[in-house]
Structures are given as structure tokens and as C-alpha cells.
């Protein structure tokens, strides 16, 4: 069982990233509509912009996949005319890096919903660092800033963690993920028992 990325792993990750790049591009409009409601409610849907990292990592289950997927998805969003410009790529690099770090902390052995949720929290934290550098967070009242942070993390746990996990579980039920995952020790033991 090789932990290194193979060409197939990279290609599948890029395909996942292309799909999410398109979603990311379209999600800007959804976020703008939700923003009209006020009270930082747009932060509840912000977690969608981190999903490529967790979906790809949950499917491929190898080092480097979360970072590659998020950077490729952000690049796709940028190329397709993102309203956020180059900023979408810089955010994507940081978000992918922190999601990758979470999977690395678990030594790429835990691919549970909780791990996916933590990866979402990591990506949210990375995005908030960039938001802080922009300087507009200091303009918010403390109660509004608290809503901003809380809603960003809640949306990240829901979309980046739970929704990504459920999506991958649904794909697993179809058997598609077995085509790209490395065989596990349990798989080899099951084959030996059938002899």
C-alpha cells in the first residue's frame, strides 16, 4: 500500500476540484443573496468554499490530496471569472493547507465525520486570518463579530465536515470510491479467506 500520490490519484483529485471550482464560482452569487438577509447569515453558507479539500481527502485518503484539491478548485474558480479575483486563490491555498494539516495530525488514518469537521474548522480559521488582514473585521461591533465567527465555524462544520462526509458516504454506497482508493490490509485479508 503506497502512501504516495499516483497519477490516477492526482487526476481524480483534479476532476473533483474542477467540479468544486464550478460550484465555488456559482456559490458567490448564492452567498450574495444570503448576505441580503443581514446578521452575517452569509457566513453560514461560507463552508461550501472549503468542501473540495475534505471530499477529495475522504475519497483518495492520501497525503497532499486536501491541499491539491483546494488549490485546484480555487484556481478553477479564478479561471472561470470569480468575483473575488486572485484573492480566491490565496484563500484556497491557506484553506487547503489547514485542512491538510488536520488530516496529517491524524496521520491520514482517520476519515470520520469528526475529522472532516475539524478540517472544515481549520479551513475556516485560515479564511478568518485572511479576513483579519483585510481590516474590515475591526469595523464590526463585538456582537456582530461574534456572529461572524460563530456562523463561519458552524457553516464550516456543516458543509465542509458533515455534508462532505455524507456525500462521500453516498458515493461509497455506489462503489465508485473503491475504484480510486488503495486496497487496505482488511481487503487483502478478505481475499485470503476466500481461497
Residue share in helix: over 70%
Give the overall pLDDT as a whole number. 90
Low-confidence region ranges: none
Question: What structural class should be given to the helix and strand makeup?
Answer: mainly alpha
For the biggest sheet, the summary is: none
| CA-CA gap between termini | 21 Å
The gross shape turns out to be: elongated
Share of β-strand residues: under 5%
* Count of DSSP strands: 0
| Element pattern in H and E | HHHHHHH
Discrete helix count: 7
Radius of gyration: 18 Å
Question: Secondary structure elements and their pairing?
Answer:
Elements: H1 7-35, H2 51-60, H3 65-79, H4 87-105, H5 113-134, H6 142-174, H7 185-194
Helix pairs in contact: 1-2, 1-3, 2-3, 2-6, 3-4, 4-5, 5-6
Description of the molecule:
It is a single chain. The longest helix has 33 residues. The mean pLDDT is 90. The protein has seven helices and no strands. It is elongated. With 195 residues, the protein is mainly alpha-helical. The protein is 71% helix and 0% strand.
Keywords:
elongated; 7 helices; 195 residues; mainly alpha
Short characterization:
The chain is 71% helix and 0% strand.
Amino acid at each position: 500500500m503506497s502512501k504516495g500520490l499516483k497519477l490516477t490519484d492526482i487526476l481524480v483529485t483534479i476532476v473533483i476540484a474542477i467540479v468544486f471550482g464550478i460550484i465555488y464560482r456559482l456559490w458567490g452569487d448564492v452567498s450574495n443573496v444570503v448576505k441580503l438577509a443581514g446578521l452575517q447569515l452569509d457566513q453560514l453558507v461560507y463552508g461550501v468554499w472549503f468542501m473540495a479539500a475534505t471530499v477529495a481527502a475522504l475519497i483518495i485518503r492520501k497525503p497532499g490530496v486536501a491541499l491539491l484539491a483546494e488549490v485546484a478548485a480555487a484556481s478553477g474558480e479564478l479561471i472561470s471569472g470569480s468575483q473575488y479575483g486572485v484573492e480566491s486563490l490565496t484563500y484556497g491555498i491557506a484553506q487547503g493547507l489547514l485542512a491538510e494539516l488536520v488530516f496529517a495530525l491524524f496521520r491520514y488514518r482517520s476519515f470520520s465525520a469528526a475529522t472532516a469537521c475539524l478540517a472544515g474548522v481549520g479551513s475556516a480559521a485560515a479564511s478568518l486570518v485572511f479576513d483579519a488582514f483585510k481590516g474590515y473585521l475591526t469595523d464590526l461591533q463585538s456582537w456582530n463579530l461574534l456572529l461572524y465567527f460563530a456562523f463561519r465555524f458552524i457553516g464550516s462544520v456543516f458543509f465542509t465536515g458533515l455534508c462532505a462526509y455524507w456525500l462521500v458516504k453516498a458515493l461509497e454506497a455506489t462503489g465508485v470510491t473503491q475504484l480510486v482508493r488503495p486496497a487496505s490490509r482488511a481487503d487483502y485479508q478478505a481475499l485470503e479467506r476466500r481461497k
